[in-house]
Automatic annotation (TrEMBL):
Residues 91-402 form the Phytase-like domain. SUPFAM superfamilies: YWTD domain. Pfam families: Phytase-like (PF13449). This is Esterase-like activity of phytase family protein. InterPro entries: Phytase-like_dom (IPR027372). It comes from Herbaspirillum huttiense subsp. lycopersici. It comes from the Bacteria.
Length: 418
């Protein structure tokens, strides 16, 4: 059950049962002065108990909360040109985005495996309001560094000097201290496990988050994450005290990936900031909705965004290759509800399990229905600043894979409450 905040004004709205009214019915038979005196005392006692017991607990409204999402209204679109040069780097592969309210700027990371430019994130300024999405400006680029201070290597460099080949998929601004947390999918063929790391704003390494042995790659056996299908979703709770981490697809031991005939289960893990697992849930991925004209089609979870203690936004992205070899993308945004979901943290494998209740899901938006010429490979989503009417905003970003048939696309939306 959702706990709604109680204001002091609402504390005086009471409902009475017959049993609760019985003392007053009995007292009404008393002489009038005695009745009035006893009635006043009973009312004062009830009001005091209700005030202290029912309202004081909820009087602290300092914890940030988000309203649930009813629907979305498109405000507009901005794009960044293909292979746009910026301060010695090439902009592309933007697969994660987050808003920093302290500076009114945005961070967007590239999933470039240090092949085009070193692993990095960009600082953006966006200008949108209820009338539209008016401007996008790239302000800075920051190179991310490993624990030894070196830049992340590409595959060739890693073979010579070691280090982790990056495949960054999500980035978040820490609500408590403004540092940056980012996830990487690892590299299964090279025995590199996925990871979540924390960096200072200058890109320097701060720490690695302990995600657990379940997510370590084991190339010699069908266990752990599949290659390029692991840590795609990352989100802080609104108060910054906990962290959510989402898999793009099932672990090997959790069953097959989605097909045209069936969906699949991906693990969503809720952590404390020290890495302690609070709970873990199964998220039910859709089956692939469109048959490929070419050789390939997939569907997976590409990002998570916490709404409140029990609800998250889940971005599902399906890429379908046409007969011309070009990929078309089908994006859906769901609201995930973990209120009645089974905690699967103690289950080493989901395949064959018969009694798992996945998180609930409700479709908020099928991006195929938008009046846009193209919807690309949307992989990142973030809350933005509140709009003039008090509604939340959401911004999505696409990963163009440095591909001429794709675009780097940013979409801004107004969140319409239910």
């Amino acid at each position: 059950m959702k706990n709604f905040p109680v204001s002091r004004e609402s504390c005086f709205v009471m409902r009475w049962t017959v049993a609760e009214l019985q003392p007053f019915l009995f007292m009404r038979s008393l002489p009038l002065p005695v009745f009035l005196m006893r009635t006043r005392l009973v009312w004062l006692a009830c009001l005091l108990a209700f005030w202290l017991g029912g309202c004081a607990v909820n009087s602290d409204q300092s914890t940030p909360t988000k309203s649930l999402v009813g629907s979305l209204r498109l405000l507009g679109e901005q794009r960044i040109a293909l292979n746009a040069p910026f301060m010695g780097t090439v902009i592309g592969g933007l697969s994660g985005i987050d808003y920093d309210p302290r500076s009114d700027t945005w961070v967007a990371e590239s999933d470039d495996r240090s092949e085009v430019s070193p692993a990095r994130f960009y600082t953006l300024k966006l200008r949108y309001d209820l009338q539209g999405f008016h401007a996008l400006q790239v302000d800075a680029v920051t190179l991310l560094r490993q624990a030894d201070g070196s830049l992340y290597p590409d595959a060739r460099e890693a073979a010579v000097r070691g280090g982790d080949i990056p495949d960054l998929e999500s980035i978040r601004v820490d609500p408590l201290d403004g540092s940056l947390w980012y996830s990487s999918e690892g590299n299964r063929p090279k025995k590199m496990s996925p990871f979540v790391r924390r960096a200072d704003r200058d890109g320097s390494y701060l720490s690695q988050f302990p995600t657990g042995t379940m997510f370590q790659v084991r190339p010699d056996q069908p266990l752990g994450p599949r290659d390029n299908l692991s840590f795609e979703g990352l989100s802080f709770s609104p108060d910054g005290q906990t962290l959510w981490l989402g898999m793009e697809a099932p672990l090997y031991q959790d069953g097959e990936v989605p097909t045209l005939e069936h969906g699949a289960l991906a693990r969503i893990t809720h952590y404390r900031r020290d890495g302690t697992i609070i709970a873990q849930y199964a998220y039910s991925l859709d089956a692939i909705a469109h048959a490929p004209g070419g050789r390939y089609a997939d569907n997976g979870l590409s990002e998570l965004l916490a709404v409140d203690a029990h609800h998250l936004l889940a971005l599902e992205r399906s890429g379908v290759q046409g007969s011309d070899g070009v990929f078309r993308f089908h994006i859906r945004l769901y609201e995930m509800d973990i209120s009645n979901a089974t905690d699967i943290a103690a289950m080493p494998a989901l395949a064959g399990q018969c009694c798992i209740r996945p998180a609930g899901k409700r479709l908020i938006l099928d991006f195929d229905t938008l009046p846009l010429a193209k919807i690309d490979n949307l992989e990142g989503v973030s809350w933005g600043p509140r709009l003039a009417n008090g509604h939340d905003s959401l911004v999505f970003i696409s990963d163009n894979n440095f591909n001429a048939s794709q675009v780097t696309q940013l979409l801004a939306f107004e969140v319409i409450p239910p």
